[in-house]
Amino acid sequence: MLIIASAIAALIPMITYLFLIWKFDRYDREPIGLVLASYFWGSVGAIVLAFIGSLIFSSFLSFFVSDKTKLEYLGTVITAPVVEESVKGLFLLLLVKNRKFDNMTDGIVYGGAIGLGFGMTENFLYFVSYGSSLSNWIAIVIVRSLFSAVMHCVSTATFGAFLGYAKFKGTSYKLTLPLTGLILAILIHFVWNFSVSFQQTALLGFLFMLVTIVIFITVFTASITAERKIIFKELSTEADTGLIPEKHAEILSSKKRNRTGWINENIRQSYIKAATTLAFRKAEFQNAKGKSKLFYQNDIEKYRQFIQNLLSGHTDENGIV
What number is the average pLDDT over the span 192-196? Predict the structure, then answer.
């Protein structure tokens, strides 16, 4: 019974958070398959590597620290942040090469998914291991669901954000920004683990996480706003050339895109997806180099042709395209 209850308590909050993060990325949502793959890596792959890495790291520390209590403490505040953030970030380093991983927002979504997967498995292990009584079990579920697991989400999303921001930058930025993101992820993890290790600093830990979560939401919101501006800017130039109606640039970069009546309903979803992708491909083309630049150029022309074919012959009796 404890195992079933712990599994449900570990799964439902993390899946809910994952859905909210994916849904919040309103303009160019990531493929659900890649999001779930990221979640799976966090819940299984990263957990296994973190366990192996922690054993190796702790064995190394044992040569210098003989006291078991001190060794466990160092494992919590030093080993866990370094090892866990590194292994969670491994999948992001592979995923950033995917052309679906376009910008900071994508890094936040994929990184957040990995962190939530890791938090789910870690929560389950804690719930089963330390839920000695019902009241104790409930307290652990609440604290870990609202703070500890969210910390994993925020820390790995931070690394993902820096990776996404660096993707189309110069070589020096591609080296320094991801490293900065990883250090910040480790620091967030370290501060949380350190603060909640002592009763007298636990309150500071909760306050730290609340502030960190607010910053995370603010950055995520700003990144989404930046995407909206990119869509409007790039599609405005397409309106100038006559590819799309002028009013569509504003509609496609706002919540109005989800309303009916502004375009033939039979093509609305296809049009939104194609126009949004075109806008991002144009922005990516400006920063790409080599073969990637040629890929984006070809993709731009492909989507322009698709949109032109889509809009032609789709005017209804009210004159709506």
Answer: 95
String of DSSP letters for 14-50 = HHHHHHHHHHH--SSPPPHHHHHHHHHIIIIIHHHHH
Block residue for tokens 């083309």: 285
Residue 169 CB partners (closer than 8 Å, separation 6+): 177, 287
Token digits of residue 108: 């936040």
The set of residues, in sequence order, having a beta carbon less than 8 Å from that of 303 and lying 6+ positions away, is 274, 275, 277, 278, 281
Length of the chain: 321
pLDDT at 72: 87
Instruction: Give, to the nearest 10 degrees, the angle between helix 171-195 and helix 149-166.
Output: 170
Give the position of tokens 């809910």: 16
- Whole-angstrom distance, CA of residue 61 vs CA of residue 83: 13
- Which of 12, 175, 19 has the alpha carbon at shortest distance from 109? 19
Q: How would DSSP label each residue in 227-269?
A: HHHHHHHHHHHHHHTTSS-HHHHHHHTSGGGGSSSSS-TTTHH
Domain boundaries, the chain: 2-197, 201-321
Count each helix (H run) and each strand (E run) in the chain, helices first.
Answer: 13, 0
Quote the pTM value: 0.91
